[in-house]
Amino acid sequence: MRSGMKVAVIGGAFVLVATGVGYGGYALLFDDGSTSTMSAPARKTGPPDATEIDRTSKAFLAAWAAGNAKEAAQLTDNAVEAEPLLAGYRTDAKVSKAVITPAAPIGSEVTFTVAATVTHDGVSKPWSYSSYLQVIRGLTTGKPLVAWTPTVLHPGLRKGTTLQTGPATVAPVTAVDRNGRELSREKYPSLGPVLDALRKKYGKLAGGTPGVELAITSADPNKADQTLLPISEGKPGELRTAIDADVQAAAEAAVKQHASAALVAIKPSTGEIRAVANSPAGGYNTAMLGAQAPGSTMKIVTAAMMLDQGIVDGPASKVECPATVQWMGRTFENLERFSIPDSTFKDAFRRSCNTTFIKSVKPLDERGESGTALGETARKFFGIGLEWKTGVASFDGKVPESDGTETAASYIGQGKITMNALTMASVSATVKDGGFRQPVLVPPSLDDRELATAERMPGSMSAALREMMAATAQSGSGQAAMSSVAGNKGAKTGSAEVDGQGKSNSWFTAYAGDLAVAAVVQSGGRGGEAAGPVVAKVLNAR
After folding, report:
1. Cα separation of 245 and 226, whole Å?
2. What are the C-alpha distances in Å from 482 to residues 29, 74, 170, 473, 528?
3. pLDDT, position 22
4. pLDDT above 50 for 233
5. 175-181-183 Cα angle (round to 5)
6. Considering 62, 246, 284, 326, which has the largest number of Cβ atoms within 10 A of its Cβ?
7. pLDDT digits (tens, 9 = 90+) for 301-352
8. pLDDT at position 236 over 90
9. Nearest Cα to Cα of residue 527 among 177, 261, 344
10. pLDDT at position 78, please?
């Protein structure tokens, strides 16, 4: 062992004190009893045995802990990718000391804990976390090797990301709601990804001073750094958002009732986003970035198309609602094959009659416009498919041109149509206000960004849609969920079938007063049963 470097094996823990002097090597015991790293065992096949798993994992962890990136990388199945990340653990992440404690292997997997010290400019902070590795058989050498993935080094790492300690790329930001109340990830965990994105984009404009931190950084400029450990605090700037802390709190509590759910609330008269919530919290921002079939909530847009195209005159128009309908050889049916004799357009909408929204638009097919009309209406009146500039990244809906049976499916929110809670909340907000107002998290004046615009609806169209959504909330498929919501209200339910998924995704979008909300619950079934109560809880917080 070279001077200045100590590696001790104490109860399975590898303890490193790094002093800038290289590590002399680690002797890996092979099956033949040799302790030389120069010799090689006879080539083996099949999964590694328990002894190989134990020895290989400990050898890798010891070399890593000792700061010998090259040797540790050679014990993986991808030394080219592993070595720079392992080397960066000391040089970039500035880990000056580490105690790595492996647990007993379970099969081919070994979990371990890391208790480290990060030092920058004489300031040291403790840092701890857990991760795991897997030992596999090398395809060409037959040797047991660690299956390399960046998550071995830290569970938050992915391909294209690294650990870095140094001055933060942007200053810290104290985000506040519309009334000046602080929005912290501790109190509002769903906002974690949103706050990270806002900090990266507006940190300099908020007027703060950067501190020093250990963070996961990405080569992608659109991905926000993920702070793992503050080393020295900067001076935060203040960033006012459109969020309402009371609505956000209600949204957090509402989605938490389900394992996987997403919700967005918008003020129709301004387009300001009042809440963004996801369950589980703190991970992927499904509410704003998700892209899923919206099911029958899309019938709001389809209804607007039918009114715009003159297929129906208004809510009182007579339409057919049979139990089933054929489209190019495919049978579409209503839930439990219900039918409505002598139906009006309002009746079909409030009960979410699938066959009405397919059968009634057949004249468009005869004119060769059925594959494009829905997308044109979505863009023209609802701003869907345009580039929204909310202040953070968002997916702004997609209604692509279709043909064949996918055209019929698109009218009821299936096929190739993809939406999320943000876009469907905007749809309800557009109906309530009578025109599209692009959703925003921070005011456009902050960075002079240009918002997306769309045509305002004809008065007769918006009035008809509000009448039908009101009927849905008062006596239709949304009645049970909306019964506790007071005031001028409207709603639309939806359930979206997903291939390979036992239960449909539950969708619900509604408005009351000057607040519009949409939610999706994965595998929640009918819209009024799972997503409906989630939306109602938030509307009652307005």
Report:
1. 23
2. 68, 62, 44, 6, 9
3. 31
4. yes
5. 40
6. 62
7. 999 999 999 999 999 999 999 999 998 889 999 989 999 999 999 999 999 9
8. no
9. 261
10. 96
Between the alpha carbon of residue 454 and those of residues 75, 427, 429, the distances in Å are 58, 12, 13
| Angle made by CA atoms 432, 433, 438, in degrees to the nearest 5 | 110
pLDDT, averaged across the chain: 90
As a whole number of angstroms, the distance between CA 313 and CA 538 comes to 34
| Site of tokens 């109190």 | 187
Nearest Cα neighbor of 127 from 100, 159, 106 is 100
**Strand pairing category for 161-167 and 212-218:** antiparallel
How far apart are alpha carbons 336 and 287 in whole angstroms?
30
Q: What is the CA radius of gyration of the chain?
A: 29
Rounded distance, CA 322 to CA 333, Å? 8
Whole-angstrom distance, CA of residue 252 vs CA of residue 534: 10
Q: Quick: pLDDT tens for 52-83.
A: 999 999 999 999 998 999 999 999 999 999 99
Q: What digits encode the pLDDT tens for the residues 494-536? A: 999 888 788 999 999 999 999 999 999 999 999 999 999 999 9
**β-strand pairing of 173-176 with 237-240:** parallel
Tokens representing residue 265 in the block: 């609330």
CA 459/CA 478 separation, integer angstroms? 24
Taking the C-alpha atoms of residue 301 and residue 349, their distance in angstroms, rounded to an integer, is: 12
Do β-strands 123-137 and 144-146 pair in parallel, antiparallel, or remain unpaired? antiparallel
**For residues 74 and 54, what is the distance between their CA atoms, to the nearest angstrom?**
17
Tens of pLDDT, residue by residue over 400-423, are 999 889 999 999 999 999 999 999
Rounded to whole angstroms, how far apart are CA atoms 135 and 56?
7
Sequence-ordered list of residues with C-beta below 8 angstroms from that of 336, at least 6 positions apart, any chain: none
Total residue count of the chain as it appears in this document: 542
* 207 confidence band (pLDDT: 50, 70, 90): confident
Nearest to 350 by CA among 488, 527, 507, 471: 471
Cα–Cα distance for residue pair 497/101, rounded to 1 Å? 46
